Amino acid sequence: MTIGTLVLLRHGESEWNALNLFTGWVDVHLTEKGMGEAKRAGELLVEHGVTPDILYTSLLRRAITTAHVALDAADRLWIPVVRDWRLNERHYGALQGKNKAQVKAEYGDDQFMMWRRSYDTPPPPIESGTEYSQDSDPRYAHLSDAPLTECLLDVVKRFIPYFEETIAKDLKAGKTVLVAAHGNSLRALVKHLDGISDADIAQLNIPTGIPLVYEFDNDDLTPRKIGGTYLDPDAAAAGAAAVAAQGK
Ligand SMILES: O=C(O)[C@@H](CO)OP(=O)(O)O
User: Which spans are transmembrane here (predicted)?
Assistant: First the structure.
């Protein structure tokens, strides 16, 4: 049996990435640069002969648009699409809309890193009815217990069971699956695939707009290469370093 290929794609640069703001579930647009990254991602898929059979996205326009532009560039816009909130970015609680450098200056490096990269400490919850809360957002109306903040562990708990039920089954059926999502939802998935410890995952940052390809030998979905393969490794290394440096 041939196991399929998994392609992870973090959205291109968003308006709030450019402004250095905590974003989470706030539904911001891509910048022109982000649109260009998305197009380049599609071109990289073509150059490397990667042809997605199905797309999974979050419910957020920065991931949806990135996938749309990339698949258009790859002439694969017609493939089936599944959208689910469980691929969403980590809900950033009361930090949503706040500037990363200002939060770091106000609360100090340790608290900033704890909120940003600790595995199991969420930021304070967002208050209902405030500007960047999602309590009246129709796309989450069906959730009885929508999060008001999340740590990475919360993302693992919502995303990995969903991955096992859906994306993993498509991979075991031999499909090439494109997952268009977010820095922290993809960190949760990479942690699971690569078996990264709760402590070490703090060091992993995912760059915007560069396809990361995982291949598997067996249907236990152990990666053939730990860490997968970025289709533009130099740009990926520079992009990941830039994410790590946010707030400086
Ligand atoms: O603001 C966010 O939602 C995320 C991704 O952009 O930021 P960070 O990398 O700080 O977790």
Answer: none
Say if pTM beats, i.e. exceeds, 0.80. Answer: yes
The verdict on the CB of residue 81 being under 6 Å from ligand 1 is no
Residue 23 Cβ inside 6 Å of ligand 1? The answer reads: yes
Q: Is 184 in the pocket of ligand 1 (CB under 6 A)?
A: yes
Residue 127 a catalytic site member: no
pLDDT in tens, 31-76: 999 999 999 999 999 999 999 999 999 999 999 999 999 999 999 9
Residue 131 annotated among the catalytic residues of the structure = no
Pairing of strands 176-181, 5-10: parallel
Distance 113 CA to ligand 1 centre (A): 12
Could you tell me the distance, in angstroms and rounded to a whole number, from the CA of residue 220 to the centre of ligand 1? 30
Distance 132 CA to ligand 1 centre (A): 15
Task: Work out the average pLDDT over 7-17.
Answer: 98
For 89-126, the pLDDT digits (tens) are 999 999 999 999 999 999 999 999 999 999 999 999 99
